[in-house]
Design a protein that fits this description.
alpha/beta; Rossmann fold; 7 helices; 51% helix; globular; disordered N terminus
């Protein structure tokens, strides 16, 4: 018999690089017993390169194409927890893919708490935040603050998700 819980919409986490999407997503997946997908990790596994290497050797356009493939695959079934890359919001088609069977949650973290080392586009975090914030807000159904603990943020996402789908 099919698990009826897997009919629930995906939980999709959006936000700035380093805001905690991966860590929060892993906790959520563990707590509600759902599969976890990190689109940056999926891109790295497919390409054999780190995100930084893809950006520096092949360019952002190649990375964005691989990212779109990853979100399409991650979103192909219901009941999943998906941590998207920070720049997923740069392509409106990504919204259509993720929102088709997912609820989108914007993870906000104070800029001074965001790590920038090893993140290709985070060298000017203020400009990146200013450009992306309106898109994160417009795509997400709920904003979750992640300035304290990962577990607390994960529990807020879970509560919001089950409230939205009930």
């Amino acid at each position: 018999m099919k698990n009826p819980g897997f009919e629930m919409p995906n939980i999709v986490l959006l936000g700035m690089p380093g805001c905690g999407k991966t860590a929060i997503g892993q906790v959520i997946a563990h707590l509600i017993n759902r599969p976890f997908f990190d689109t940056d990790t999926m891109v790295e596994q497919k390409s054999g390169l780190t995100v930084w290497e893809i950006f520096s050797k092949q360019g952002e356009s190649i990375f964005r194409a691989l990212e779109k493939e990853a979100i399409t695959l991650a979103s192909s079934e219901n009941g999943r927890v998906i941590a998207s890359g920070g720049g997923v919001v740069l392509d409106k088609q990504n919204y259509d893919i993720l929102a088709n069977n997912g609820r989108l949650y914007y993870i906000e973290r104070d800029l001074n708490l965001l790590p920038t080392e090893g993140r290709p586009l985070s060298f000017n975090i203020q400009a990146l935040y200013k450009a992306r914030l309106p898109i994160y807000i417009s795509w997400a159904e709920v904003k979750i603050i992640n300035n304290t603990s990962i577990k607390e943020a994960a529990q807020h996402v879970i509560s919001a998700h089950f409230e939205l789908i009930s």
